[in-house]
């Protein structure tokens, strides 16, 4: 067996051990279930608070039948979903009272529309009816002056406003924004939970002296890589389960109705940035965690690394939604330590030039081997030291 094969085999054995241990953890299963329930709950709340259907149901009595064509034409021009129903006046009033119709047209004068409602008239429907009445009044005046209403209507309909933007506008809709924020939350939570799981695992093995047994058969670098690889696989499984359930819930409730290609693209980038971000942060967490021997001390040593993660996340959910074109955020998203929490959100919002995506991706790909070298050196020199906290300077110089 070659040295390379032996090295890979050792790493895979450690990774499988971490995967098996983590998947059997009750805390892991509970955390995953709670995250899924939260996403499903968000989808349901979004559906409930959406205020019902976005279309308007309007009844038209035989007396008001002459307004039907104008009504549908104006609604179409205003991009308002209007559904017209031909009904008798008595039946129509009953349906308005029962909430089945938003309004009932009962008058026979298209220039003075008479509409029956239950409590109030929707603003969109009011705008449509107002324009229908105004157009009917205009046609009547044009006819009285000897003109052709059809010719005037065609001229009015052909009037246009030409807009010449000096810069390309940012096209970001509410669905993109929601998906971007959810992406940021998923990556942040995954890095936070699984990154700290690496740190806690390092200290637990050090406290129980298991690490001494393991290092009798494998090298510190192999142990570090295997631990990061194993917990990263579990984290990816967890995130995929949460994201899949969230997408299914959002689609089923109608809260998520983006184009399939846009959603798929966001999911692909989510996976890529999770893997890269998790690898980078987990290596950093493992390196600094090896400096201490007690679980109580873990929080203190991982805080500097954790703050970098939190800063990127906070900027991503506070500044990006209101200013997606922010140059400050764009610059930060190119820095490897902030890229995992910022770049996925910018990609979901569709505001990233191709060169920025390439630079950001290349930066973290280059940073990961450097982090592996730094963390492996610190881990190797500090993991066997029990008792008092090892200073970073001493861990770097030892050996």
TrEMBL record:
Keyword Membrane among UniProt keywords: yes
Sequence intervals crossing the membrane: 27-45, 177-199, 236-256, 268-292, 298-320, 355-374
Domain ABC-2 type transporter transmembrane: 26-376
InterPro entries the UniProt entry points to: ABC2_TM
Pfam families: ABC2_membrane_3
The keyword Membrane appears for this protein: yes
Molecular function as annotated in GO: ABC-type transporter activity
Keywords: Membrane, Transmembrane, Transmembrane helix
Gene Ontology cellular-component annotations: membrane
Protein localization: Membrane
Mode of membrane association: Multi-pass membrane protein
Identification of the protein by name: ABC transporter permease
Organism of this sequence: Mangrovihabitans endophyticus
Taxonomic placement: Bacteria, Bacillati, Actinomycetota, Actinomycetes, Micromonosporales
